Amino acid sequence: MLKLFHSPGACSMISHIALEEAGADFEPVRVMLAEGEHLKPEYLAINPHARVPALATERGTITENIAILNYIADRFKAAGSVPRDDAFEGAKCNELLGWFASTVHIAFAQVWRAARFTDDESVYPAIQQGGRQALEKHFEEIEDRCGEGWLVGDRFTAADSYALTFFRWGNRINLDMSRFPRWAALNQRLLKQQSVQRVIEHEQLGTELFRPAA
Ligand SMILES: N[C@@H](CCC(=O)N[C@@H](CS)C(=O)NCC(=O)O)C(=O)O
Q1: With bands split at pLDDT 50, 70 and 90, how would you rate the model's confidence at 214?
Q2: Which of 52, 86, 131, 156 registers the highest number of CB atoms within 10 A of its CB?
Q3: Is it true that domain 87-193 has CATH number 3.90.1150.10?
Q4: What is the C-alpha to C-alpha distance for residues 190 and 150, in angstroms, rounded to an integer?
Q5: CATH dotted code for 2-76
Protein backbone atom coordinates (compact mmCIF):
# COMPACT_ATOMS: atom_id res chain seq x y z
CA MET A 1 0.00 0.00 0.00
CA LEU A 2 1.17 3.57 -0.65
CA LYS A 3 2.32 5.55 2.40
CA LEU A 4 2.32 9.36 2.41
CA PHE A 5 4.69 11.00 4.89
CA HIS A 6 3.19 14.40 5.63
CA SER A 7 2.95 17.16 8.25
CA PRO A 8 -0.31 19.00 9.04
CA GLY A 9 -0.71 22.17 6.95
CA ALA A 10 2.65 21.72 5.18
CA CYS A 11 2.99 21.55 1.38
CA SER A 12 2.48 17.79 1.75
CA MET A 13 -1.24 18.57 1.94
CA ILE A 14 -1.20 19.06 -1.86
CA SER A 15 -0.18 15.43 -2.42
CA HIS A 16 -2.51 14.37 0.40
CA ILE A 17 -5.47 16.02 -1.39
CA ALA A 18 -4.47 14.43 -4.73
CA LEU A 19 -4.39 10.94 -3.17
CA GLU A 20 -7.80 11.51 -1.55
CA GLU A 21 -9.26 12.87 -4.79
CA ALA A 22 -7.94 9.79 -6.65
CA GLY A 23 -9.57 7.45 -4.13
CA ALA A 24 -6.14 5.85 -3.63
CA ASP A 25 -5.58 3.14 -1.05
CA PHE A 26 -2.87 4.82 1.05
CA GLU A 27 -1.74 5.25 4.63
CA PRO A 28 -1.03 8.84 5.78
CA VAL A 29 1.95 8.88 8.16
CA ARG A 30 2.37 12.02 10.26
CA VAL A 31 5.88 13.54 10.51
CA MET A 32 5.59 16.51 12.88
CA LEU A 33 7.93 19.23 11.55
CA ALA A 34 7.30 21.39 14.62
CA GLU A 35 8.71 18.59 16.77
CA GLY A 36 11.70 18.01 14.50
CA GLU A 37 10.57 14.50 13.53
CA HIS A 38 11.83 15.09 9.98
CA LEU A 39 15.38 15.42 11.33
CA LYS A 40 15.43 12.02 13.03
CA PRO A 41 17.49 9.19 11.47
CA GLU A 42 14.32 7.12 10.83
CA TYR A 43 12.91 9.86 8.59
CA LEU A 44 16.25 10.80 7.00
CA ALA A 45 16.40 7.18 5.80
CA ILE A 46 13.14 7.90 3.94
CA ASN A 47 14.06 11.39 2.67
CA PRO A 48 17.70 12.45 3.21
CA HIS A 49 16.67 16.04 2.33
CA ALA A 50 14.59 16.15 5.56
CA ARG A 51 11.43 17.40 3.87
CA VAL A 52 7.82 16.32 3.51
CA PRO A 53 6.13 15.02 1.44
CA ALA A 54 7.54 11.59 0.67
CA LEU A 55 5.52 8.81 -0.91
CA ALA A 56 6.54 5.20 -0.28
CA THR A 57 5.48 2.96 -3.18
CA GLU A 58 5.88 -0.75 -3.89
CA ARG A 59 8.99 0.13 -5.94
CA GLY A 60 10.65 2.69 -3.65
CA THR A 61 10.17 6.17 -2.27
CA ILE A 62 9.40 9.31 -4.27
CA THR A 63 10.14 12.77 -2.84
CA GLU A 64 9.35 16.28 -4.17
CA ASN A 65 5.70 17.27 -4.51
CA ILE A 66 5.92 17.71 -8.28
CA ALA A 67 7.31 14.20 -8.81
CA ILE A 68 4.71 12.72 -6.44
CA LEU A 69 1.85 14.61 -8.11
CA ASN A 70 2.90 13.47 -11.59
CA TYR A 71 3.18 9.89 -10.31
CA ILE A 72 -0.34 10.12 -8.83
CA ALA A 73 -1.54 11.53 -12.17
CA ASP A 74 -0.04 8.62 -14.14
CA ARG A 75 -1.19 5.99 -11.70
CA PHE A 76 -4.77 7.18 -11.07
CA LYS A 77 -5.56 9.68 -13.89
CA ALA A 78 -7.89 11.54 -11.53
CA ALA A 79 -8.59 15.21 -10.81
CA GLY A 80 -6.56 17.02 -8.14
CA SER A 81 -3.13 16.13 -9.58
CA VAL A 82 -1.86 16.89 -13.12
CA PRO A 83 -4.06 16.54 -16.25
CA ARG A 84 -3.14 13.51 -18.35
CA ASP A 85 -5.74 13.75 -21.12
CA ASP A 86 -4.55 17.10 -22.53
CA ALA A 87 -0.81 17.64 -23.04
CA PHE A 88 -1.10 21.44 -23.03
CA GLU A 89 -3.11 21.62 -19.80
CA GLY A 90 -0.77 19.06 -18.22
CA ALA A 91 2.19 21.29 -19.12
CA LYS A 92 0.43 24.45 -17.89
CA CYS A 93 -0.28 22.70 -14.58
CA ASN A 94 3.37 21.63 -14.23
CA GLU A 95 4.42 25.19 -15.17
CA LEU A 96 2.44 26.57 -12.23
CA LEU A 97 3.61 23.81 -9.87
CA GLY A 98 7.20 24.59 -10.90
CA TRP A 99 6.80 28.30 -10.23
CA PHE A 100 5.07 27.65 -6.91
CA ALA A 101 7.75 25.20 -5.72
CA SER A 102 10.83 27.01 -7.03
CA THR A 103 9.85 30.62 -6.35
CA VAL A 104 6.76 31.28 -4.18
CA HIS A 105 7.58 28.48 -1.71
CA ILE A 106 11.17 29.72 -1.45
CA ALA A 107 9.96 33.21 -0.47
CA PHE A 108 8.18 31.54 2.48
CA ALA A 109 11.44 29.76 3.28
CA GLN A 110 13.10 33.21 3.50
CA VAL A 111 10.49 34.23 6.10
CA TRP A 112 10.46 30.98 8.11
CA ARG A 113 13.92 29.54 7.50
CA ALA A 114 16.33 32.48 7.09
CA ALA A 115 19.10 30.29 8.54
CA ARG A 116 18.96 28.25 5.33
CA PHE A 117 20.35 31.23 3.39
CA THR A 118 23.20 32.43 5.62
CA ASP A 119 25.04 31.72 8.88
CA ASP A 120 25.08 35.45 9.63
CA GLU A 121 22.16 36.01 12.02
CA SER A 122 22.48 39.80 11.67
CA VAL A 123 21.04 39.63 8.15
CA TYR A 124 18.07 37.38 8.99
CA PRO A 125 15.67 40.37 9.22
CA ALA A 126 16.68 41.53 5.72
CA ILE A 127 16.17 38.02 4.30
CA GLN A 128 12.77 37.79 5.99
CA GLN A 129 11.75 41.23 4.75
CA GLY A 130 12.88 40.30 1.23
CA GLY A 131 10.72 37.16 1.43
CA ARG A 132 7.67 39.20 2.46
CA GLN A 133 8.20 41.68 -0.36
CA ALA A 134 8.54 38.87 -2.89
CA LEU A 135 5.35 37.24 -1.55
CA GLU A 136 3.38 40.47 -1.98
CA LYS A 137 4.35 40.47 -5.66
CA HIS A 138 3.78 36.72 -6.19
CA PHE A 139 0.40 36.86 -4.43
CA GLU A 140 -0.76 39.67 -6.76
CA GLU A 141 0.15 37.43 -9.69
CA ILE A 142 -1.81 34.51 -8.18
CA GLU A 143 -4.82 36.81 -7.68
CA ASP A 144 -4.56 37.92 -11.35
CA ARG A 145 -4.59 34.27 -12.43
CA CYS A 146 -7.79 33.53 -10.48
CA GLY A 147 -11.06 33.75 -12.41
CA GLU A 148 -14.48 32.17 -12.00
CA GLY A 149 -13.19 28.60 -12.16
CA TRP A 150 -9.91 26.78 -11.56
CA LEU A 151 -6.30 27.83 -12.18
CA VAL A 152 -5.74 25.40 -15.08
CA GLY A 153 -8.43 24.89 -17.73
CA ASP A 154 -11.85 24.18 -16.29
CA ARG A 155 -10.78 21.48 -13.87
CA PHE A 156 -9.50 21.03 -10.31
CA THR A 157 -5.75 20.33 -10.31
CA ALA A 158 -2.88 20.29 -7.82
CA ALA A 159 -2.17 23.93 -8.75
CA ASP A 160 -5.41 24.90 -6.95
CA SER A 161 -4.43 22.88 -3.85
CA TYR A 162 -0.97 24.52 -3.84
CA ALA A 163 -2.61 27.99 -3.98
CA LEU A 164 -4.95 26.96 -1.15
CA THR A 165 -1.95 26.01 0.97
CA PHE A 166 -0.18 29.33 0.26
CA PHE A 167 -3.29 31.33 1.21
CA ARG A 168 -3.29 29.69 4.64
CA TRP A 169 0.43 30.38 5.03
CA GLY A 170 -0.16 34.02 4.00
CA ASN A 171 -2.59 34.36 6.91
CA ARG A 172 -0.10 32.62 9.21
CA ILE A 173 2.53 35.30 8.51
CA ASN A 174 -0.10 38.06 8.82
CA LEU A 175 -0.14 39.25 5.22
CA ASP A 176 -3.33 41.12 4.41
CA MET A 177 -5.15 38.39 2.47
CA SER A 178 -8.29 40.52 2.05
CA ARG A 179 -6.55 42.02 -1.02
CA PHE A 180 -7.11 38.74 -2.89
CA PRO A 181 -10.89 38.25 -3.23
CA ARG A 182 -10.81 36.09 -6.38
CA TRP A 183 -8.25 33.79 -4.75
CA ALA A 184 -10.42 33.62 -1.58
CA ALA A 185 -13.38 32.63 -3.81
CA LEU A 186 -11.26 29.86 -5.37
CA ASN A 187 -10.61 28.57 -1.85
CA GLN A 188 -14.34 28.44 -1.16
CA ARG A 189 -14.80 26.28 -4.29
CA LEU A 190 -12.00 24.02 -3.09
CA LEU A 191 -13.52 23.71 0.38
CA LYS A 192 -16.58 22.14 -1.28
CA GLN A 193 -14.47 19.25 -2.64
CA GLN A 194 -14.85 16.17 -0.44
CA SER A 195 -11.16 15.34 -0.84
CA VAL A 196 -10.16 18.77 0.50
CA GLN A 197 -12.63 18.46 3.40
CA ARG A 198 -11.24 15.01 4.32
CA VAL A 199 -7.64 16.29 4.33
CA ILE A 200 -8.51 19.39 6.40
CA GLU A 201 -10.28 17.16 8.89
CA HIS A 202 -7.51 14.56 8.97
CA GLU A 203 -4.78 17.22 9.36
CA GLN A 204 -6.97 19.04 11.94
CA LEU A 205 -6.49 22.41 10.23
CA GLY A 206 -9.87 24.10 10.66
CA THR A 207 -11.14 26.33 7.84
CA GLU A 208 -10.65 29.87 9.20
CA LEU A 209 -7.19 30.44 7.67
CA PHE A 210 -8.48 29.63 4.17
CA ARG A 211 -10.38 32.93 4.12
CA PRO A 212 -9.08 36.46 4.78
CA ALA A 213 -8.61 37.22 8.50
CA ALA A 214 -11.66 39.10 9.89
N1 LIG B 1 11.04 20.99 -2.96
C2 LIG B 1 10.28 20.27 -1.97
C3 LIG B 1 10.09 21.16 -0.77
C4 LIG B 1 9.41 20.45 0.34
C5 LIG B 1 9.42 21.31 1.59
O6 LIG B 1 10.11 22.35 1.68
N7 LIG B 1 8.67 20.86 2.58
C8 LIG B 1 8.62 21.57 3.83
C9 LIG B 1 7.20 21.62 4.37
S10 LIG B 1 6.19 22.66 3.39
C11 LIG B 1 9.50 20.87 4.84
O12 LIG B 1 9.53 19.65 4.90
N13 LIG B 1 10.21 21.66 5.65
C14 LIG B 1 11.05 21.14 6.67
C15 LIG B 1 12.08 22.16 7.05
O16 LIG B 1 12.06 23.25 6.50
O17 LIG B 1 12.91 21.85 7.90
C18 LIG B 1 8.94 19.82 -2.55
O19 LIG B 1 8.41 20.56 -3.38
O20 LIG B 1 8.44 18.75 -2.16
Answers
A1: confident
A2: 52
A3: no
A4: 9
A5: 3.40.30.10
